[in-house]
Amino acid sequence: MLNPLSLEPITGAYHEPRTFTDTSPDLYPYLQHRNDLTPYAQRTADLTVINTGLTSSVKTYIIMPPTIYGTGTGLFNRLTIQAPTIMRSALRNGQVLKLGADDGDVECVHVQDLANLYILMASKVAKGDDMPSGVRGIYFASTDRYTWKEFADGIAKALVEVGGIKTEEVKKIGLEEAAAEWTGGHKLLCELNFGSNFRTRPDTSRSLGWRPSRTKEDFNNHYLETAKLVMETQK
User: Fold this and answer.
1) What does the alpha-carbon distance between residue 121 and residue 119 come to, in Å, rounded to a whole number?
2) Burial readout 165-199 (b: 16 or more C-beta within 10 A, e: otherwise)
3) Is 201 exposed, middle or buried (0-12, 13-18, 19+ CB in 10 A)?
4) pLDDT, tens digit, for every residue of 207-234?
5) What distance in Å separates the CA atoms of residue 192 and residue 195, rounded to the nearest whole number?
6) Cβ(119)–Cβ(63) under 8 Å?
7) Which of 151, 29, 37, 1 minimizes the C-alpha distance to 86?
8) Cys-Cys link to 58, which of 23, 53, 91, 103 (CB 3.0-4.6 A)?
9) Tens digits of per-residue pLDDT, 194-213?
10) Up-side HSE of residue 157: CA atoms within 13 Å toward CB?
11) Are β-strands 144-147 and 105-110 bridged in parallel, bridged antiparallel, or unpaired?
């Protein structure tokens, strides 16, 4: 699932020009306000963690990553969500589908950079280092940005290269059709994961010493890497 801060620009249900920083003291009440307006599973879960920690006197730390890309190194699932989902849909339809406006953009982080943030924070907790927790224990993990048009075009080019589809032409579709294709008909989940946008700054994460190493070039290269893995899983 995408970041609980994700906006809803397609339906217009919630949209604002704001850059969030994880040092902001109003993140917790903002998340509560957003969830009161539109309950969203990931946001509800994060708020429940914070609230349970407060009532139980347990320190809590929540990492809110944007779109995660790249290949994992675990023993089981090594794929992320957005790109593989759109790729499998394209293989079914013979063409990449895209939701929303061409200029809608969102943030991303490589799965290994994100894993390094988890390792860094877990190490500090184990050592008893003092870190913001509870209502101030929300950590961002963005490194780069991309547009949904760029995303769809990159996927189409990669799938053509691996022989999955024959055209790089991308077809725009509406929210209802996209939800049926990608999220089992759940329109809010579809908009937040495949058509949203938001801006964050991981100031607190970086203050801990987090130094992500992947660049926009790595993001651009991940399409082909992911397409090859998706094709393997289709065999």
Assistant:
1) 6
2) beebebeebebeebbebbbeeebbbbbbbbbbbbb
3) middle
4) 999 999 999 999 999 999 999 999 998 8
5) 6
6) no
7) 151
8) 53
9) 999 889 999 999 999 999 99
10) 12
11) antiparallel
The pair of three-digit structure tokens given for residue 121, joined into one six-digit string: 């924070």
Give the pTM.
Answer: 0.92
* Alpha helices, H only, 163-215: 175-182, 187-194, 203-207
Interatomic CA distance for residues 224 and 235, integer angstroms: 17
Element (H, E) at 101: none
The CA R_g of the chain, rounded to the nearest whole Å, is 18
Distance spanning both ends of the chain, measured CA to CA: 26
Q: Residue 87: name the closest of 202, 181, 207 by CA.
A: 181
